[in-house]
Amino acid sequence: MQFDRDLDVKGLNCPLPILRTKKALAEMESGQVLRVQATDPGAQKDFPAFAKQTGNELIGQQEEGRVFAFFLKRK
């Protein structure tokens, strides 16, 4: 999947992945895609909820081993 910016939050636990994602999205333009790579197991629930609350679109997610990748489209 294509993305404009990559954010590595592997090794960080809640709430840091969401806080760093929020900051990164604020620096991006509308329509751009952010890929977030996380290892926190709670991220699987946190990122869909974050997208719904903020109006940003979760356009995809993948899991490779213990690394979760989320693709968020800036509103």
Strand order of the largest sheet: 1-2-4-3
Catalogue the unreliable spans: none
DSSP, total strands: 4
Mean pLDDT: 97
Helix content, binned percent: 25-40%
Strand content: 25-35%
Protein structure class: alpha+beta
Based on CA atoms alone, the radius of gyration comes out at 11 Å
Give the count of helical stretches. Answer: 2
Which descriptor suits the 3D outline?
Answer: globular
Main β-sheet, in a few words? 4 strands, mixed
Measured distance between first and last alpha carbons: 18 Å
Q: What letter string, H or E per element, gives the SSE order?
A: EHEHEE
What would you say this structure looks like, in words?
The two termini are 18 Å apart. This protein has helices spanning 16-26, 43-54, and strands at 5-8, 33-38, 57-64, 67-73. The longest helix has 12 residues, at 43-54. The protein contains two helices and four strands; from the N terminus they run βαβαββ. Strand 1, helix 1 and strand 2 (33-38) form a beta-alpha-beta unit. It has 75 residues and is of the alpha+beta class. The model has no long low-confidence stretch (mean pLDDT 97). Strands 1-2-4-3 form a four-stranded mixed β-sheet, with helices on one face.
Describe the SSE topology.
Elements: E1 5-8, H1 16-26, E2 33-38, H2 43-54, E3 57-64, E4 67-73
Parallel strand pairs: 1-2
Antiparallel strand pairs: 2-4, 3-4
Describe the structure in brief:
With 75 residues, the chain is an alpha+beta fold. 31% of the residues lie in helices and 33% in strands.
